[in-house]
Amino acid sequence: MHDALSETIILLAVSVLVVALFRRLKLPPVLAYLLVGMLVGPHALALVANSEAIRFLAELGVAFLLFSLGLEFSLTRLISNRKAVLGLGGAQVTTSVIIAGLIAWLLGTSVETAFVIGCVIALSSTAIVIKQLGEQLELDSRHGQLSIAILLFQDVAVVPMLIIIPAIADNGSQSFLIELAYSFAEGIGVTVIMLAIGHWLLRPLFHEIAQAHSAELFTLAVLLTALVSAWATHMAGLSMALGAFLAGMMLSETEYRHQIETDIRPFRDVLLGLFFITIGMLLDMNTLPGMLHWVLLITAGILLGKTLIIAAMSKLILSASTGVSLRTGLVLAQGGEFGFALLALALGSSVISHNIAQLLLASVICSMIFTSFVIRLNGWLVKNMTRSYAQDRKTQEQDIAQSTARLNHHVIICGFGRIGQNIANVIQQEGFPYFALDYNVDLITNAKKAGYQVMFGDSTHAEILQAAGIERASVLVICHDNIGATEKTLKQAKMLNAKLPVLVRTQDDTYYEQLEAAGATEIIPETLEASLMMASHLLSLLGMPMQGIVRRVQDMRNNKYSTLREFFHGDEPEDIEKPDEFRKRLTCVTLTEDAHAIGKTLEDLDIEKIGVSIHANRRNDTSSPIPAADMLLREGDVLVLFGTPENLEHAEALLLNG
After folding, report:
1. CA-to-CA separations, 488 to 70, 324, 493, 516, in angstroms, rounded
2. Buried b (16+ CB within 10 A) or exposed e, 378-393
3. Neighbouring C-alpha atoms within 13 Å toward the C-beta of 80
4. Which among 2, 145, 288, 586 is most buried, taking Cβ atoms within 10 Å?
């Protein structure tokens, strides 16, 4: 007999270990949760039963995933990019469903089962693709933009699929097409009614709740809205996930969308992880060896078939180049997390048999494992598969080299967003030559029309920097928003021209030491520079001579903004994913009458060994900056400490309790 508490502990323990391992290997956490389910499930170690309670919580995880999707849904975005999203995305999903479903039907499955198989195979993994393309700095590339457009349509296409699958489970004597039409009409009716209710009710309701200024009440209201909407669609004979999606859409129209996303994320991530674990539990490891050849064949069919379909559609509909089309196909060749949701729904509704579900489940998981490596190598694969793509890259480098052939002692600007354009304006007015690189096609098109010297090129590649004349340049300015792109560009630049001054812009001081170690000549954190500028204007208004202001500002810059980087934090939540250097803060510890530190010196306590520095000791309303090591501490002393939250707590315990 399984004990609920024991099973929960086992699930958490194994999840922590496996997810930590996958993060170390830089593999998607989705695969980690699937592996956890395979290991602890009834078909392997049998440590956890796939109980009704666990399946219900997993279904809630899918509901919250759709709720998040609804929050991000933008009809304006769909319309503005309709050719790529509706045209290419619609063609990809429709073609994939028809071809995969037709093959399944010809192999002997029912029409309903074939439809489910087609839907599962048509979808790709939004989580894996977006995360990995972001890490590889390819989200703004041509194949990245096409991939995002297709994924957007796939996410929207899940909604009618969630309506249709439960409906076709019990179609009786009615024909399949009639049942599809009926269920779709029912879904549209429920959607219209709920959106109308949400439009007139939710905005004023959340406005009143926000007036209470209670984070607890706000979170409760969000959870209630999502669950009531899920319950309503469930009672109407539709899926809970559909109701959660509609709730997200309703709340996306309010001004509290971003706050809702922040509040719901912990619930969504934990429950979604549980959903993937339950999917892993469904996979029968004992039957896998007997059908391994079929799994590998279907996996190869999914990867190859989707790559060819997406590549062909990209060329036909958007006239994309062969290289870009193939890269888009390779990026989206896998199955996805929404496919698992549809598969679980179909199993629960008995639309698909257990054996076919096992085969499809194993194949989709394998496709996701393979595609993690395929996405990482998509550029290299296409370059080696198509000469035309390699020639396109060579032509791009030649075009850049031709544009910069007459430039000497010029400034190279990497990243041509707002800051890059402002820099170009200033140096152009002063008569200095420059050349800019960016990989946002729309931005470059408009900027070139306006007369800016900018071309498409990824500055993280050495060949592009060479073509831009980095050996002849006087300064390199890096304005990327992405720290990964900044580091890669900096590394390539220093390899090609070690003596070249490099100016790096960052949003804050999070990676200051990291970029300095990589060879940046000057690092300009926007938040700290804003503080300096405001302080300098204030000093000027107070009558301080300009020479003194300039000297003070320069001293702060020379000291690496040290005084600006040390400040007291409020009660805002701590982001554990940030580097320790950025998480450091000031805090004060008052020595009470029975404190362990009274009568001891700072040298005796040796607090710095735990990573905390003492900035001042305030005694009798008088501060002693950086107190002497032999100063005896007294009751009432207020020590100002600087360190990470964990080290500060350790230091406080040492000072007060020993």
Report:
1. 35, 23, 9, 13
2. bbeebbeebeebeebb
3. 4
4. 145
Using DSSP, state whether 273 is helix, strand or coil: helix
Residues 6+ apart with CB under 8 A from 232: 190, 194, 243
Percentage with pLDDT > 70 across the chain: 89
Residue bearing the bigger pLDDT, 571 or 211: 211
Domains of the chain: 4-383 (1.20.1530.20), 391-520 (3.40.50.720), 580-657 (3.30.70.1450)
Q: What is the DSSP string of 504-550?
A: EEESSSTTHHHHHHHT-SEEEEHHHHHHHHHHHHHHHHTT--HHHHH
SS3 content of the chain, % helix, strand, coil (to 5): 65, 10, 25
Find the range with the poorest average confidence among 342-356, 520-534, 561-575.
561-575
Q: Is 332 helix (H, G, I), strand (E, B) or coil?
A: coil
Mean of pLDDT over the chain: 82
Q: Sorting pLDDT into bands at 50, 70 and 90, what band is 256?
A: confident
Q: Which token pair is 618?
A: 């305030």
Contact present, 251 and 260 (Cβ < 8 Å)? yes
Interval 218-233: pLDDT, tens: 888 888 888 888 888 8
Measured between alpha carbons, how far apart are the two ends of the chain, in Å? 47
| DSSP codes joined into one string, 422-486 | HHHHHHHHTT--EEEEE--HHHHHHHHHTT--EEE--TTSHHHHHHTTTTT-SEEEE--S-HHHH
Total Cβ atoms within 10 A of residue 295:
21
Of 124, 120, 119, 128, give the one whose Cα is nearest residue 32.
Answer: 128
pLDDT score of 1 more than 50: no
- Which candidate, 87, 90, 33, places its Cα nearest to that of 337? 33
Side-chain-side CA neighbours of residue 113 (13 Å): 18
When mean pLDDT is compared across 74-83, 497-506, 603-612, the lowest value belongs to: 74-83
**Dist. CA 538–CA 540, nearest whole Å:** 5
- Using CB atoms within 10 Å of the CB of residue 310, give its burial: 0 to 12 exposed, 13 to 18 middle, 19+ buried: buried
**In 319-386, alpha helices (H):** 322-331, 337-348, 354-376, 378-385
Q: Are 274 and 340 in contact (CB under 8 A)?
A: no
Residues 6+ positions from 328 with CB-CB distance below 8 Å = 143, 146, 147, 150, 310, 311, 314, 320
DSSP-based three-state secondary structure for 561: coil
Write out pLDDT tens, residues 45-78: 888 876 676 767 677 777 777 787 777 776 666 6
pTM of the predicted model as reported, rounded to 2 decimal places: 0.68
Are 31 and 369 in contact, with CB atoms under 8 Å apart? yes
Say which residue, 147 or 279, is predicted with more confidence.
Answer: 147
| 309-313, 343-347, 355-359, 557-561: least confidently modelled range | 557-561
